[in-house]
Amino acid sequence: MSKNTTSLSKHNQVILPSLFLSTEEQAYSFSAQVKQASINLGFDSFQSSLISLAVSEITINAVRYANGAKIHVYKTTNQKGLSILVEDTGPGIKNIKQAMASGYSTHNSLGLGLAAAKRTVDKMVINTSSKGTAITLTSYLPIPREVIDIGSVSFPKMGEYYKRDNFCIKTYQGECILIALFDSYETKTNVQAALLLINTFINEHYDLPLKELVIGCHRLLKGANYTRSMDMGLLRITPSSAESLIVGNISITTLLPTSNPIQKLSGGLGSNFPPSLIITHIKLSSPFCFALHSNGIDSVSLPKIDTLALNSKKHAEHIFDNHARADDDATIIVIKSYE
């Protein structure tokens, strides 16, 4: 039993019996079992199919080029998803970077390649050497709307077809959320490329600490020689707490009482970067409600509306209709828990 298997078996509930796969038929059959197990766990048919496809690619490659593989399927430690460990004793992957390149595929497999397989799951970890390869695929269940509900509205200023605002919402580990809202002051020629650069980075590195995310985005903008700054607000919500980091003219507001005022730092990303970064930590109690908005929203106050009476989408629409400015891009994101 390998170190990878031992680590899983001590802490994770088995979903399917471990099995050694030596033929393509066994690999396809086991992938179908993984799909059904995913559905039984609570994944929808589409996500279950994606998980099954990723397992097919990895196991068939192992059968063809490593004389088979041992496969283990477990619940994640937090019981919010499943992990699939595929272990072989083949020659290893000589060039992981090449193997992970988009479009790279091995001979007559399903054609997904490792890069595409990685995109179908939440996390893929590869450990390889001349003695074999262990690949762990992990997917998490979506957070139910009755646990955390998110709604957003975002439009460019009147008369424009593009926005300088952009946002990213990442749910992960079946219980955590990162919301990033950013507003670029770049030239019209460069603004969309700058927004895409930052959006891609956050989507790939969403689980980094907030300070590292902001520093990484700042360095990317500097390295790309963009001349104007970008405002950014980050909010991370976990089962017991929340934390935020704001640089520039983004606002994060708690719409239900809290003892922690959310701090905002002057400056920007790409230029005029603040000398130090300050994170606001918030202890959560249910119900809670947060609003993130760009400077195209003047206020989030709705005195005649009960905060918990609306779902997040309707709440965001009411704020937008009452407080969005016509002469600026306007983005509002509402996150709430009703429990």
UniProtKB/TrEMBL annotation:
Q: What SMART domains does the database record attribute to this sequence?
A: HATPase_c
Source species, domain of life: Bacteria
Q: Which GO terms describe its molecular function?
A: protein serine/threonine kinase activity
Question: Keywords in UniProt for this one?
Answer: Kinase, Serine/threonine-protein kinase, Transferase
- Matching Gene3D superfamilies: Histidine kinase-like ATPase, C-terminal domain (3.30.565.10), PPM-type phosphatase domain (3.60.40.10)
Q: Which InterPro entries match?
A: HATPase_C_sf, HATPase_dom, PPM-type-like_dom_sf
What SUPFAM superfamilies does its record include?
ATPase domain of HSP90 chaperone/DNA topoisomerase II/histidine kinase
Domain called Histidine kinase/HSP90-like ATPase: residue spans: 46-143
What is a single Pfam family found in this protein's UniProt entry?
A: HATPase_c_2
Official protein name in the record: Putative anti-sigma regulatory factor, serine/threonine protein kinase
Q: Which organism is it from?
A: Colwellia psychrerythraea (Vibrio psychroerythus)
High-level lineage: Bacteria, Pseudomonadati, Pseudomonadota, Gammaproteobacteria, Alteromonadales
